Amino acid sequence: MSRLGRVPGAALVLALACASCAHGPTGGATAGGATHPARTATGPDSVTSALWRLDESVGVNAADAGPFHLDGTYGPDTRSTFGRVGRARSFTSSVNSFVYVNTHPALDAGAAFSVEAWVFPNDFGDFEDTPIVARWAPEIAQTSWMLSIVARNIRDPDHPGTGDHLPLIRLGTVGKVFFAFQPEAAGSPRSYFSSRPLELGRWTHVAATYDGEVVKIYLDGLVDAQYASPGRVRATTAPLFIGNVFDPRWLTGFGGDLRAGPNADPFPYYAFRGLIDEVRISSVARAEFPAARGQ
Question: DSSP assignment, residue 44?
Fold first, then answer.
């Protein structure tokens, strides 16, 4: 296994630790005091590869309800809070705000693929983008796919950014959802954008699908944009991150928590700012998203 797919020993223990996996009550209060009608959680179906409900109120284990039980590990700067369905995870501007999931072939896009989540962004970020869920390691041979939100791309002389995602971003797209992938065949990464930006301080169901011919981006269960893009997404041994992206070789379990180690760049270039709930990966290009119904 590539070293990208490994976590140091103590972190492996953390990733396997048993934490509360009970789902909280649906609906009710959310970020900023907003309320929504009660919602029923949509369970895994026959084409679900992974489903992280992010419901845990204690512990470091992010349980996967899918068939492969690809449990993740919460970074120490995430918090449990009320979500769109039950509870959700709150992410902040910190390199240690993330969910880490070890590499597995079920996370590859293959010939067909869908990725979806509920998001409640509080801010779009100052650098290139703020990933929702991604397998996008900084080593060029390990980049695969990413669902993200375009940030403001402010040039800060004290923190110039990594620049790794600049080739993916278009001008005038701040706040828009985009799906990027590295083709299996030789070539540059491709990125495709929603037609409209997200609203800050509001829950939105976002999704991207790819069937080897067409990329579609969905907002609140409806097709928002689609693009012809024949090919396949390159497989990778990179792990999966929710709410952040950085070099996984920075991770250490020394001291008890899984976190970026002393050799890491501590600046949170790609940290998501807000809440994420109900992250699902599917092995088909879904045409419907039951989780997004009832807007």
Answer: P
H or E stretch at 210: strand 204-210
pLDDT band at 163 (very low <50, low <70, confident <90, very high): low
- Share of residues in the chain with pLDDT > 70 (%): 83
Task: Tell me the C-alpha distance between 257 and 251, whole Å.
Answer: 10
**Cβ neighbours of 93 (radius 10 Å):** 17
- How is domain 3-28+46-197+204-292 classified at the CATH fold level? Jelly Rolls (2.60.120)
Q: What are the start-end ranges of the H helices in the chain?
A: 9-16
pLDDT digits (tens, 9 = 90+) for 23-35: 333 444 444 444 4
Q: Which residues pair with 52 in a beta bridge?
A: 64, 279
User: What secondary structure letter does DSSP report for 239?
Assistant: -
Residue 211 burial (10 A CB sphere; 0-12, 13-18, 19+): middle
For the chain, domain boundaries: 3-28+46-197+204-292
The model's confidence at residue 254, banded by pLDDT at 50, 70 and 90, is: confident
Q: Tell me how far apart the alpha carbons of residues 127 and 154 are, in angstroms, rounded to a whole number.
A: 6
The CA distances from residue 245 to 59, 131, 145, 168, 240, in Å, are 22, 7, 12, 14, 9
The residue whose two tokens read 């301080």 is 201
- Going 182 to 183 to 186 to 188, the CA torsion angle's sign is negative
